[in-house]
Specification:
Oligomer: homodimer
Number of domains of chain A: 2
Structural class of chain A: alpha/beta
Order of helices and strands of chain A: EHEHEHHEHEEHEHEEHHHEEHH
CATH superfamily of the largest domain in chain A: Isopropylmalate Dehydrogenase
Distance between the termini of chain A: 33 Å
Number of strands of chain A: 11
Chain lengths: ~350, ~350
Amino acid sequence: MNIALDAMGGDHAPEAIVAGAVEAARIYGVTVSLVGQPNVIEAELKKHDTKGLNLPIVPASQVIAMDEKPAAAVRAKPDSSMVVGCKMVKRNEAQAFVSAGNTGGVLAAGILHVGRIKGILRPALIGPFPTLRGVCLILDIGANADVRPEHIQQFAIMGSIYAREVIGIEKPRVRILSNGEEAGKGNQLVIESYKLLEQTPSILFEGNIESKEIPTGLADVVVTDGFTGNIFVKTAETTARLMTQVITEEIKKSPLAMLGALLARRSLQRVRERMDDSHYGGAVLLGLSSLVIVAHGRSNALAIRHAIRVAKQAIEQDVLTKIQRGIAALESQKAAVPDESISI
Amino acid sequence: MNIALDAMGGDHAPEAIVAGAVEAARIYGVTVSLVGQPNVIEAELKKHDTKGLNLPIVPASQVIAMDEKPAAAVRAKPDSSMVVGCKMVKRNEAQAFVSAGNTGGVLAAGILHVGRIKGILRPALIGPFPTLRGVCLILDIGANADVRPEHIQQFAIMGSIYAREVIGIEKPRVRILSNGEEAGKGNQLVIESYKLLEQTPSILFEGNIESKEIPTGLADVVVTDGFTGNIFVKTAETTARLMTQVITEEIKKSPLAMLGALLARRSLQRVRERMDDSHYGGAVLLGLSSLVIVAHGRSNALAIRHAIRVAKQAIEQDVLTKIQRGIAALESQKAAVPDESISI
């Protein structure tokens, strides 16, 4: 199994990226192809013991920065690590490509150099969100800042297939993120998407969901535009970190509380582990015809290691074939019984 | 001081609303006029000791439910508690109106029966968000699900005036909520609003802000559309509650940790108090020509009590005159030096 990794992308590239690759190659026994500037990568690799690990370097002379305009950068830099990585999965030289770089850049490189699954208008980032009952899949969490109702409809279809085929939920319950649970609440996009989702027979649509209901496990799949989804995910991460900080501050004010925290330290460690998003690793860019995983821009080595784990599992579970098969089944239904309500 | 309260609005109306009014009248020494169906309110008042408290009943025969279409409901129900409450502040029979009812309904009733400050296109809900350095004001947190860039510009102007005049921040730093900190990141609304905000001389605009930077105190005022703002605020609330639940679960698994939690209980209580949004009470509906405060739909008695406290403080600080004066100053500047970049 060969997983291509964008060694140049991310807030902490290349240090954290290469460090994560070394960990992943050791722990998961996979080949991690480091895509980027060879001298930079070699210098990082020297900091680690890489004996016996499969960490080939794939040269790419250009780098797409975090703040570059995605589409323009991808066109202007054909030898960037992002473009080279996408071309590797397209030619099946690697079974997945992982990048913590500019999300818009990965999306643009993916659309241009990997290509979409037939019928898919917009690939979307799907990420798991922990609930008290298990996990809720949210898409789009950042690929498309502006979308139309027909895109949301496709997100719902792709998310349902992913939940069924990858997570094993027989009838995934789908809801749309809104500012109120009642039908009719929401912005124009939500209100129009709601109508379209109601008329989509291939999904089990159960209406609006407020963010407060996501942790209760009310839905298996939550659809939203990539702007709102991104704000949702980042706000949840931030609040969890803020709360940890507030707890630490308050405990430090009292010696008795500090003793208490010492006694409870293993429990508090488990809380940190449950809330630490480094373990989620990465989000699959669903709708491309090869596997592309987007890791958080601020990924540390642990997050990169877990993003590679997500890629490995997606390869083992054959996520791509399952999604393609699910979309193809919908397409053939459409061909047999023309159904205007499905606009894919 | 007379504060009108919508006794019929909110998930826990009328019980929690009347209970909160009784507490507020006792603790803050204000008159709270209970607007709604007299028999219902009287039945609730009987559950409390109201001796010596000023809690007059103002009859309103109709109720606007949480799930009604706002504008239509306000037109169809001229004797609803929301409409009657708004008319009271318009006629200055009360100095503020507080409602935990359907936010869209309060907004519609406010626009129709209170009226906007001259020049204001859309009133916006402004709410305080705790940061590690103090407080950040966010608007709109729920009044307008769909807005245009010129509305965002007005939110920035109103928010700046509020921060300066009410909170006492001399030069409030304004940012726009986005999915990336770099200029150019965001959805179409953010990108277009950004350009307009850059050209607004009456505010100190410092660019985009990601939700993760709000708790660090990077901005004094954060502007956003009411849909995104609402998702942001609710997600933060929800994550804080979820984390409390996770901590409790993990601690209960170990007797040693339970002892630890017992020793740290006063510190944990302070954490709960710092994170409990019941203490924020309500958000001011900025841009109306009388004071209207919107409390959370799920307000309990404590939240209602604090919403009345917010109203009392807003009256004492003369928030309304300050905002009107600030807007008027901008208007007169506009008249003196025509500036197309300010579209109010």
